[in-house]
Amino acid sequence: MSSPASVLDLAAIRADFPLLAEQVNGQPLVYLDSGATSQKPQAVIDAEVAFLTRSNAAVHRGAHTLAAEATELFEDARAAVAGFVGAQPEQLVWTSGATAGLNLVAYAIGNASVGRGAPASARFALGQGDEIVITETEHHANLIPWQELAARTGAVLRHIPVRDDGTLDLEVAASVIGERTRIVAFTHVSNVLGIVNPVGELIALAQKVGAVTVMDACQSAPHLPLDLPALGVDLAVFSGHKMLGPYAIGGLYGRSDVLEALPPFLTGGSMITTVTLEKADYLPPPQRFEAGTQPVSQAVALAAAVRYLDAVGMPAVHAHEKALEQRMGEGLRSIPGIRLLGDPSTGSGTTTGSGATGVERVGLWAFDVDGVHAHDVGQFLDARGVAVRVGHHCAQPLHRRFGLTASVRASAAVYNTEADVDTFLDAVSGVRAFFGAGA
Q1: What CA–CA distance (Å, rounded) separates 279 from 277?
Q2: From 3.30.565.10, 3.40.50.720, 2.50.20.10, 3.90.1150.10, which CATH number describes the 4-41+313-434 domain?
Q3: Where does the record place the Aminotransferase class V domain (predicted)?
Q4: Is 218 among the catalytic positions?
Q5: With 70 as the cut, is the pLDDT of residue 3 above it?
Q6: What is the value of pTM for the model shown?
Q7: Which of these is catalytic: 45, 50, 67, 394?
Q8: What CATH code would you report for 48-309?
Q9: Residues 102, 238: contact at Cβ < 8 Å?
């Protein structure tokens, strides 16, 4: 298998990430848990420190020099991050992460459902018998807010099932998404299966019935070239800490007409124009959704992260991680007693290389080891310096679909190498023998 190492200078990239030089349990660190949180390059760390040490002040709230400088950096960061996903600055709302963004949308729609907001907000109102459609692959953050919204409004929550090979059943989707469907919420890339979902088909089905589309882009924004307006999705969320950025920062993208019609969720300072003791008038988006003190230094650091990814080149990032995914998948299939989740060789479909025809993936695999609990596998790998995620990955319904309560997940990023994958595979190959579960 050819490697994109000639495209990416992996030695230079790895040198940009201080933590990768550390040892764990006396072993060189092999970090394969970027699906949970990515490592940060020095440029991101420096950007946040520089803001805090040289430009720290409240944004949009002062006329002094530092306040003006902080505001300019804050809004420059918005433009950089918005541009990274193909959007305009006014289409990007700062949040504390994807979970906050999804709750913002769900609660804003709930507010519209009780008559709050401008007349245009009525388009989002839900009532008894209206339907919200999600998929069986969702992270809890894109499931529970819709459960709660359905409970508050009387709407019905329906789902699109996943097939044995990990792909969504689009035939069922076409029957589930119907005239009562008002919202279709889905993940771009499953955080368990690593499969890039057919968002074009889902969006087309939703548009046919006039439903609002909401996409979780947490596992796609760091790994794929992403143009949200071109995809045609109405709303999308992503988290900074999964894309080389800091914690407590994320983004909500929205089509301009959608954001302008949504009523606010959190209220208070910085999102208003005029306030009396009886009522308040709200600013236009994105500020309408940014009440209170904002994550300013984190936004500046996230801008540094997307500039880093842009400098590497997202097509090159995806090609590199695709090669790692193929190496990982092929290696895991060769180890007895390993069951891959979302394996295209399972169920129907023609398998070519590491993927079924027409199925795109990112550098992530979740798997079960026959006879060994996922947590024991994780501890075995950790003792050898290999960091992976174990558990249900905040996707219990999906694990239940595959008859599991937990799995082991290895997820790669731009800084991982073929040597990382080989070290991981070598460690996995010794798990069952160590626990007496097989040769």
Answers
A1: 6
A2: 3.90.1150.10
A3: 30-424
A4: no
A5: no
A6: 0.95
A7: 394
A8: 3.40.640.10
A9: no
